[in-house]
Design brief:
By secondary structure, the protein is an alpha+beta fold. The chain has five helices and ten strands. Helix content is 34%, strand content 27%. The strands form two sheets. A five-stranded antiparallel sheet has the order 1-4-5-3-2. Strand 4 and strand 5 form a beta hairpin. It holds the Pfam family Stress-antifung.
């Protein structure tokens, strides 16, 4: 647990040093699920996992999302070697960019959670989950973590926090109401604070319903905004089901 926390802090320091105009795909965090057991090399589970990944590699990923399994009727099947894979790319990272993030994330997951039947890994541009349990449509409250900029705003902190809250509220509605076919539950926005601009985004995994997405984003906004973000110049919350981020610089593709 301590090593994961240190890794998150280290990566956050790295991201802050990157030019504000450079869109990165840095490793952020991972979670190895030890309750689902392990698989061995050459096992049926590994063969099924490899097949699912091959199937995903042939998809267009136009909306940057897929939830795949090695069987069709996985809702009722009791096969212990069923594999479920979620890939959710950031709203500006669809198509070939999503494929690229998939391969990066898969390599990172195999290195950090080798042999785990259940695991999640986050990069700037995607989240990848493999599981022996069907998690489709569920909000994974146990998967959330946050990262913050170590610097605080230097003046008028209350105005900053109020502007951020207003922007979050607007994006919360936009992400669940104004849905496009390209990138689904995804919203971006910006607001001016004095001479600066605040940029933010919110996104849900596309296996959630509109109501599920709203509940997920409302939960992380309420839980993290006041206490964890406070006066921080930038921050993010990431999970398997939804995420948000804000910064005083642009961090998305235009």
């Amino acid at each position: 647990m301590l090593s994961n926390i240190l890794a998150v802090v280290a990566i956050q320091l790295l991201i802050r040093s990157v030019s504000s105009q450079n869109v990165t795909n840095e490793y952020l965090n991972h979670q190895c699920n030890n309750t689902q057991g392990r698989y061995t090399r050459g096992s049926t589970f590994e063969k099924n996992l490899n097949q699912v990944i091959r199937n995903i590699s042939h998809l267009h990923l136009r909306n940057g999302y897929t939830y795949e399994s090695n069987v069709v009727a996985y809702e009722v099947s009791k096969d212990p070697n069923i594999v479920f894979v979620l890939l959710q790319c950031r709203g500006d990272s669809y198509g070939s960019k999503c494929h690229s993030c998939l391969h990066t994330a898969l390599s990172g997951l195999r290195e950090r959670c080798s042999g785990n039947r259940g695991a999640i890994i986050w990069y700037d541009q995607c989240v990848l989950e493999i599981s022996s349990v069907n998690t489709k449509g569920r909000i994974r409250y146990d998967s959330f973590f946050n990262m913050t900029n170590l610097k605080n705003v230097s003046s008028d902190a209350e105005q900053f926090k109020n502007k951020r809250k207003d922007l979050f509220n607007k994006l919360l509605v936009k992400a669940t109401k104004d849905v496009s076919e390209k990138n689904g539950w995804y919203a971006v926005g910006e607001t001016r604070i004095g001479r600066n601009k605040l940029y933010a985004m919110m996104q849900c995994a596309l296996d959630l319903t509109p109501n599920g997405c709203y509940v997920c984003l409302e939960w992380i906004t309420g839980r993290y905004d006041s206490y964890y973000f406070d006066r921080r110049q930038g921050g993010r919350v990431l999970g398997r089901s939804c995420s948000l981020r804000y910064e005083l610089y642009p961090f998305l593709r235009r």
